[in-house]
Quinolinate synthase
Amino acid sequence: SDPGLVERARAAKAALGDRLFVLGHHYQRDEVIEFADVTGDSFKLAKEAAARPDAEYVVFCGVHFMAESADILTADAQQVVLPDLAAGCSMADMAAIDQVEDCWEQLAEAGVADTTVPVTYMNSSAAIKSFTGRHGGTICTSSNARTALSWALEQAGDGGKVLFLPDQHLGRNTYARDLGGALEDCVVWDPHRPMGGLTVEQLRDATMILWRGHCSVHGRFSVEAVEAARREIPDVKVIVHPECRNEVVELADEVGSTEKIIKTIAAAPAGTSWAVGTELNLVRRLAAQFPEQRIVFLEKNVCYCSTMNRIDLPHLVWALESLVDGRVVNEIRVDEDTAHWARVALDRMLALPG
Ligand code: 13P
Ligand code: SF4
C-alpha cells in the first residue's frame, strides 16, 4: 500500500491516542487490519465494542450492520464511525423491516406467531434486531448459532417454531448439522411471494421457517469445488463458513465462524493441507501467516466480499484525519427506540451460555 498513506494513518492514530479505538473484522484488507486495535469475528467484535468505554471514537472497519451493533452496545457518548458508508452487506439487505413485519402478520393469521420465536443473525439491520427483541427472540452469530437456536426452540416449546432471519443457510445448517434436526422440518419464506410462497399447512408443520436470504460470497462455494480439492490435494481438510450451502457444509471436515477457522488452522501441525471456504482476504492472510501449512482458497471463481473491501486505506485515513481535525464523518447512530429493543435482543445473545 501507498507509504504516504501508511504514514498518515500512523500519525493520525498517534495524534488521537486513547481517544480512538479501531475494530477490524477478519475480512478486511491487510492495509486496514494493520491499524486495528482488535480484530475478530462479528461476535468477538460485538463484545469488544463495549470494552473501551473511555474511547470517544470507535472506528469500525467492517460493514454497516456491525457498526450499528457497535453503536447499540457502546456508551451513548461514544461515536461510531464507518469509514465508507457504502460498506453494506448484501445478505442484510435481503430482509427489509417492512417485509419482516408483514411476514409476522401472516404468521399471526396462520395462527403460528404465538408459538414462534425469532432468531436473527447478526448480519441484519438494527430495525430487524429491534423486531427480534420486541418479539422475545435473540440475535446469533456464526459462532453461537447452535446455542442460540437451542435456546429459542426451548422457548418455543413443544410444537413451537423458530423464524430464522435472514440467512437460510446458517439457519438450516445449524438446525440440521449442529442439532441433528431433519431437513424436512425446514421451510423457506420467500418475502416476494404471498404467504412467503407457503401453505398454511406447510407453516403449521414446520419447525424452522427460514428467511430466503443468503450471502452472495459464501453461497457460491460448490460441491464440485470440494470434490476437486479432494482430488487434487492429498489428505486435504476442507473448512468452510456456515453461510455456505448445506450440501457444501455436509461435505466439509470442519465448519465454523471466521474466528474458529483461524483457531483451527493455527492449532494444526505443520504440513497440513487446507481448502478454505470463506472470504479471500482472510484466506490469503492465513496462507501468509502459516507458511508451514498448505492453505488454498476453496473455489477459484469466488471473489472478495466487495462491500467489506470498500473500507480501504484512503477511506480509513480520511476518517482518522477528520477526527484529528475535530470532524466526525460517517457517524453511525441508531435511533433510541430501535436501539432499545435491538439491545434487548443483543443482550439475550450475550447472556447465552458459552
Ligand atoms: P463471522 O461472524 O464469522 O465473522 O462472519 C461474519 C460474516 O459476515 C460472514 O460472512
Ligand atoms: Fe455480508 Fe457475505 Fe460480505 Fe459477510 S461475506 S459481509 S455475509 S456479503
User: Anything to note?
Assistant: Residues 41-43, 123, 141-142, 215, 241, 243, 257-258 surround 1,3-dihydroxyacetonephosphate (ligand 1) (CB under 6 Å). The chain is about 45% helix and 15% strand. The chain has three domains: 3-89+308-334, 92-215, 218-297.
